[in-house]
Structure formats: structure tokens, C-alpha cells
Amino acid sequence: MFVSSDGWTFLAADFSQVELRILAHLSSDPELLKLFQDPETSDVFSILACQWKGVRVDQVKNADREQTKRIVYAVVYGAGKGRLSEWLGIPANQASQFSENFLQKYKGLRTFTQKTIQQCQMQGYVVSIMGRKRPLPHINSQDCSLRAQAERQAVNFVVQGSAADLCKMAMIKVFTCITSSSSLTAR
């Protein structure tokens, strides 16, 4: 347990579904964007879980939501049907079908991942939303396992690296606001 010194307070903050929001933005997927733009939607992963499980939102259990979250990122970041089947405890053909159904509903995600990989193949690197570059020397490798790993890393970096960029920008902004305040101090 962390305890702050006398006179000090810890500040904790969290972006709500930041990677999925960035994915929606970068992919411009209309269905995914619609979920975030709907004022009635407070938790996109619960909505996705209810669509997947075929139940009402109020019937979605926390375990369903967490499983859906892992599955969504697994599909987007290129986990194979074997790994997905392992996580879900279902046969590989069912896992493959789930993945395909998800990518059919949110077509922009497949387009985004394909474009990201193609761009990386041409340039040899990918770029985060704030311009940070990550070179991926194996993106055009003849070794298919090295190439597949680089392809997953390309998509992963663009989304997760962009999320990290936004979090760092927010921390700097909060720190600047606190240090410029006459009643607050930060260290």
C-alpha cells in the first residue's frame, strides 16, 4: 500500500478505454465511432460484450466485459485463432469465426491494420499519433514468423504508442497546471 507524506496527496487518473478510442479514431470505423459518440454508451466494452453474448447490457457480468476486452485487443493485435481459442476455451474454428464476425462488423479495423502494415513495409517504421517512430527491421523478412511478429508490433505500436503519447501529454498538462497554481504544489 502506498501512503503519501503528511500534507501531500497522490493523484491517480485513467483514460476510459483509451486504446479502443484511439483505434476508433485511427481506423475511422463508422460502427466503432458510433459507439463512442452515443451519449447513452458509458462503457463500450460492455456494449461489445452484450452484442457478443446476445444479452442485455445490464446482464453483462464483469468477467464477460474483461473477456471481451481481451478478445477485442487480441483480434486487433493479430492473435491467431489458436491463442484466441485457448483464451475462450472454445474450438479453434469457433474462435476463427468470432474473429471474422468481429472484423466484418467493424470493417475499418481490418483496413486500418492492413494499411498500417503496408505503410510499415514501405517505410520500415511506424509512427505514433505524436510522431514518435518505431523502426521494425523484420517487417519485410523472408522468415514468416519474424515478419508476422513485426506486423503485430507495427499495429500495436501505433495504437499503444499513441495512447502513451496522450497519457504523457496529459501528465505534463496536469503538472503544469499544478505548478502554476498558487495553492497547489507538485513534486
Automatic annotation (TrEMBL):
SMART domains: POLAc (SM00482). The keyword Protein transport does not apply. GO terms for biological process: DNA-templated DNA replication; double-strand break repair. InterPro entries: DNA-dir_DNA_pol_A_palm_dom, DNA/RNA_pol_sf, DNA_polymerase_A. GO terms for molecular function: DNA binding; DNA-directed DNA polymerase activity. It comes from the Eukaryota. It holds the Pfam family DNA_pol_A. Keywords: DNA replication. Residues 1-187 form the DNA-directed DNA polymerase family A palm domain. PANTHER family: DNA POLYMERASE I, DNA POLYMERASE NU. This is DNA-directed DNA polymerase family A palm domain-containing protein. It comes from Callorhinchus milii (Ghost shark). The lineage of its organism: Eukaryota, Metazoa, Chordata, Craniata, Vertebrata.
